[in-house]
Design goal:
Chains: A alpha+beta (about 400), B alpha+beta (about 400), C alpha+beta (about 250)
Helix content of chain B: 55-70%
Strand order of the largest sheet of chain C: 6-5-4-3-2-1-13-12-11-10-9-8-7
Oligomer: heterotrimer
Order of helices and strands of chain B: HHEHHEEHHEEHEEHEHEHEHHHEHEHH
Radius of gyration of chain B: 31 Å
Distance between the termini of chain C: 38 Å
């Protein structure tokens, strides 16, 4: 007990030294928390944006639809399935779509296009379709009109209030044909979507394709995006083999690859950060031991047992490291929250690239608790491991040499 | 006099000197490593898109991309090709004839884009040869050979040697078809892209398209990524009649991802520089703390404060100077090694990554251009962080400093 | 008819055997086609979960020109397809629009049947795209038939590896056809039934196509009436004409 007291007193006696050591831990925690919270936040945000603009986090189709995307692979929309899907507590929202290819035609121009039947209200909640409108107005559930993607509109020379003719192959071989007024023009960042998509309310699309009550997919949004895989597999077993459950990673593997390799590469950079943190703490401890050599030598010379000294040093280190860590976490929480509320804004070309996709050009931090805990613990472990160095020095301490200055 | 004293001081307290020297060396090394990694990543990240998919630049007829109508060939394509080919920044330029149509087999059909290519140049421009997982490259003599993607092959139950029929419109809008034989099945990282594209020899396709020696697309690969904008501007100016796009415009999604990581890297570099500065400052502070008595003694002995200040400064400069080459050398050696052998992302998810066919190896590159910057930051940090405690030491009362 | 057989024997004697096989196929083809034809037929598509029946009327002239008018179901009545050489046009009365089918639509099913739009324009010629040979004979429904093997020429735009065509020796009726892929796997089988006299010609009037590896898929075509070799002017096959049919 008296050792703890002594350690405590020691720490206060040489405040400068204690503060410097603590500061090295403190900043290490703050920096590593900020770096990894930014990393998580940025990539989550990117996924949220990319996934949010069309595919959604998870889609449910009839089994085999993904490989053969035809209307014959559609299924009947039912409250039952929707209920089963929504039973999973991680599913935030569900919206139904009926998608198929058709020909879009204006006066003399004919183009292939993707006609998507949507539930305007629910679609907006998941993919923010309404925000992509650049002219005209958004759809109403009962409308018999369409939203045209910008590129397709240009190609067909059609604007708001013009009429588009759609022709295609309906359900069970029926012929799908219809004329629709253009209610609005939407802009997508992805050229593929921007050049060939047409949106109409689900009932209108079902009528057009003669696929009454049918849909091709349920698009889901999640509460916790991190639980993508468990949620997908839970859904898979809940829905059975008549349906296929696909995560965005399976639907857009190229984007997934890019994000994965980028975030993996970033681990190297974080590795260097840890190296610097180690070196910062170690340098501090090293100099601390140089500085304390005399003092330690003295203590041993006046008859203090080395193991007591080691214990004393250990108490001091643990106090310093733990309080540095706690302070660091305590300080990083408001910092990360601040950066979440006032995210770093991107500038220049990046901002332009984001705007093109209609994303907000920001770098938010992630508020996930595990980041604070993980980073705090990592630095704590680094700090404690490095505190073994002073102990090693004490063991090797020769009081006579130590006191010679 | 002070110089000699500073020099002796360094040798007198070896431990302290070594620690400071090493903080500077480590700092420099870390700075170099981060920059080298960053540079390597920049390259490897866009590599798949540029080298295996779209190239740096693509040239089309202004109207071609609107409908992929094969009648919009590049006018005076051959002249354009030669003009681009001999630009110093250009590594490879290869022409492609493109048409969209339908691939039919006995069991079904699929919509595809048919790319007519010059085999040797295509192999260099889009690594088509390296992507082959089954079969062999194009035969220079045999006619009507086709390469198809793995996913399409599985879907259409095709393998090498299988016959398929391609149907598309020719340059005058007529529908034509030709029988082709699968010579190879390829697979890249981008499965959806593989599914949509098939490759045939340009001569075979042009015969069916009745387009003679013309083509629709030029894919330009540059010697280095940095000259992209310059070359694009240059070409746009020189050939205003054509539609000249960079990969950033062709694949905005990739551009978005790349830019995001770029920005994140800047922030991380900032954080790392902070960590570096803190590391050095802390070590220096401790070192000065240790010297309190010594400095107090010198002040008590009546040494001029300016001289004392210069002494501390000189010591730091000496140490910085000796730490610098160590750091740079270490950085150079390590990046040089990994530049040659690659930094392998072993362990974490490598299996999974390579099953995607994704490059997991980074080749860091020694950041010659940014070296001065890092040096400045590290040395600056070292000197500033030694000044700050030195000032404090000077202001200290000798009595207080000596009392221990 | 006797004259016919004489002629046939004559051909057999002076041409090599392969040439004869080709003639037989050509004759069978000519028999179904005539120089022009005006056909009313019903197309029944059967799928595991649904069936669909389509009544159409078609005018054909050679291999280059044809017009198809949909007569029922009511929703699709009046839709017209026009094929001119290698182009397909589509008249949609509901939209009052004529559309030229782009190549991207060629792999789509035609009117929900087992035929694709491409089948309408594909101009593989039974005569020129294959190498024919008689490989045997057999009897189908008490009719004695040649078994003719048709191997596509290498450059021909044909997906099949081999066709076995069973042609009636007497009346040159294509009674049975097997479609193989290049590995010799059977893909489709077509059978012809209900041989009747139509417009002075004895022809099968019901054709059934069954894909081998798709369970419960079949397409059936039933000829309701045929008129052969009536004069149809070339300007019948123009886009402007499509709206006036019915």
């Amino acid at each position: 007990m008296w050792l703890i007291k002594m350690a405590w007193k020691n720490m206060w006696r040489n405040r400068n030294r204690t503060f410097i050591t603590m500061a090295s831990i403190f900043f290490a925690v703050i920096l590593s928390v900020t770096a990894s919270s930014l990393k998580e936040g940025i990539f989550d945000n990117l996924v949220k944006n990319v996934v949010g603009f069309y595919t959604g986090y998870i889609q449910v189709h009839k089994h085999g639809y993904w490989d053969e995307q035809i209307l014959e692979n559609s299924f009947e929309a039912s409250g039952n399935i929707e209920g089963t899907i929504l039973q999973d507590e991680n599913i935030a929202r569900v919206t139904a779509r009926l998608e198929s290819f058709a020909l879009a035609s204006s006066r003399d121009i004919t183009k292939g296009c993707l006609v998507v039947g949507i539930d305007p209200g629910k679609e907006q909640e998941i993919t923010l379709l309404e925000n992509k409108i650049i002219r005209g107005r958004y759809l109403d559930g009962s409308d018999n009109s369409v939203l045209l993607s910008e590129g397709l509109g240009e190609r067909l020379n059609l604007g708001v209030a013009d009429t588009i003719v759609l022709i295609g192959q309906g359900y069970h071989g029926a012929t799908a044909a219809g004329k629709y007024p253009v209610k609005g023009i939407v802009r997508f960042g992805s050229p593929e979507l921007n050049d060939k998509s047409v949106f109409m309310p689900l009932p209108a699309a079902q009528d057009f394709y003669g696929a009454y009550g049918m849909i091709t997919s349920y698009v889901l949004s999640l509460r916790d995006n991190r639980k993508l895989h468990p949620t997908a597999s839970a859904l898979r077993s809940a829905l059975g083999i008549t349906y296929e459950v696909m995560s965005w990673e399976e639907m857009i593997p190229d984007i997934k690859q890019h994000i994965q390799s980028d975030s993996n590469n970033m681990k190297y950079v974080l590795g260097i950060l840890y190296m610097l943190i180690c070196f910062g703490i170690f340098g501090t401890l090293l100099m601390m031991m140089v500085e304390r050599k005399f003092e330690m030598g003295m203590l041993v010379a006046i008859g203090m047992k080395k193991n007591k000294l080691i214990l004393l040093q250990l108490y001091e280190s643990v106090f310093t490291v733990v309080s540095g860590c706690l302070l660091g976490i305590a300080m990083s929480i408001p910092l990360v929250f601040y950066l979440n509320n006032h995210p770093i804004r991107m500038g220049g070309d990046t901002a332009k690239a984001y705007e093109r996709f209609g994303f907000e050009a920001i770098f938010p931090t992630s508020l996930e608790a595990f980041i604070f805990i993980n980073q705090g613990l990592t630095v704590l472990v680094i700090g404690l491991l490095l505190s073994l160095y002073p102990i090693y020095k004490i063991i090797r301490l020769d009081p006579v040499n130590a006191m010679r200055r | 006099m002070i110089v000699i004293m500073a020099w002796r001081n360094i040798w007198r307290n070896k431990m302290r000197s070594i620690v400071i020297m090493f903080s500077i060396a480590t700092g420099l090394f870390a700075g170099i490593a981060v920059l080298a990694l960053y540079k390597g990543m920049m390259k490897s990240r866009v590599r798949t898109v540029i080298d295996a998919e779209v190239g740096h630049l693509q040239v089309h007829h202004v109207d071609f991309k609107k409908d992929y109508d094969p009648k919009f060939v590049l006018e005076d394509g051959e002249k354009l090709l030669q003009a681009i080919r001999f630009l110093p920044a250009v590594k490879i330029v290869t022409p492609r004839s493109i048409t969209s149509g339908m691939l039919a087999t006995t069991t079904g059909s699929a919509g595809v884009q048919v790319n007519g290519v010059l085999p040797e140049r295509e192999y260099a421009a889009s690594r088509l040869k390296e992507k082959i997982v089954e079969g062999r490259p194009f035969d220079p003599v045999k006619k009507n050979e086709v390469m198809i993607g793995k996913k399409l092959a599985t879907k259409m139950k095709l393998k090498t040697g299988s016959k398929l029929v391609l149907t598309f419109t020719d340059t005058s809008g007529n529908i034509v078809s030709g029988a082709f034989r699968v010579v190879a099945v390829f697979q890249s990282d981008n499965a959806p892209l593989d599914e949509r594209n098939v490759y045939v020899k340009i001569a075979d396709l042009n015969t069916l398209l009745t387009s003679g020696n013309s083509f629709h697309e030029l894919v330009v690969l540059l010697e280095n990524d940095e000259s992209l904008e310059k070359v694009q501007q240059q070409l746009k100016k020189k050939f205003p009649a054509y539609h000249i796009e960079s990969w950033r415009e062709i694949s905005p999604e990739t551009d978005l991802l790349v830019k995001t990581t770029d920005q994140y890297s800047y922030i991380i570099m900032l954080i790392i520089m902070f960590a570096l500065a803190f590391g050095i400052i802390n070590t220096m502070l401790m070192a000065i703390l240790e010297r309190t008595r010594e400095i107090g003694m010198m002040v008590a002995l009546g040494i001029n404060r300016v001289k004392l200040f210069t002494l501390v400064l000189l010591e730091t400069i000496f140490l910085t100077l000796s730490g610098t080459p160590i750091g740079i050398l270490a950085g150079w050696l390590v990046t040089g090694y990994f530049n040659k052998y690659g930094l392998n992302l072993s362990g974490m998810g490598r299996e999974m990554m390579s099953s995607f066919g994704f490059g997991t190896i980074i080749y860091p590159e020694f950041p010659v251009d940014k070296l001065a910057g890092v040096l400045f930051i590290v040395a600056g940090t070292a000197i500033v962080s030694c000044l700050f405690p030195a000032m404090k030491a000077i202001r200290m009362l000798p009595v207080e400093a000596l009392r221990r | 008819m006797r004259y016919f057989i004489f002629l046939l024997l004559f051909f057999i004697s002076i041409f090599p055997r392969a040439q004869t096989a080709r003639e037989i196929v050509q004759k069978a083809d000519d028999k179904m086609r005539g120089s022009t034809s005006e056909v009313e037929l019903t197309i029944k598509t059967t799928r595991p979960s649904w069936t669909r029946s389509l009544d159409v009327k078609a005018w054909m002239k050679g291999t280059d020109y044809s017009v198809i008018l949909i007569q029922s179901p009511a929703k699709e009545k009046g839709i017209v397809f026009l094929k001119r050489k290698k182009e397909v046009w589509n008249w949609m009365p509901a939209l009052e629009r004529t559309i030229k089918l782009p190549p991207s639509m060629m792999n789509q099913s035609w009117m929900g049947t087992d035929f694709t739009n491409d089948d309408l324009v594909r101009e593989s010629s039974v005569k020129d795209d294959y190498v024919h040979s008689i490989i045997g004979d057999t009897t189908i429904d008490r009719r004695s038939c040649y078994i003719i093997q048709m191997i596509p020429k290498p450059e021909a735009a044909v997906v099949w590896g081999k066709l076995l065509v069973y042609i009636d020796k007497k009346d040159f009726l294509e009674l049975h056809t097997k479609f193989y892929d290049e590995e010799g796997k059977l893909i489709n089988t077509m059978d012809a039934y209900d041989i009747r006299m139509m417009d002075g010609r004895l022809i099968p009037t019901r054709f059934v196509m069954i894909p081998e590896d798709k369970k419960n898929h079949r397409t059936e075509m039933i000829y309701r009436s045929v008129k052969y070799n009536r004069h149809i002017a070339d300007d019948f096959f123009i886009t402007g004409k499509m709206k006036t049919l019915n």
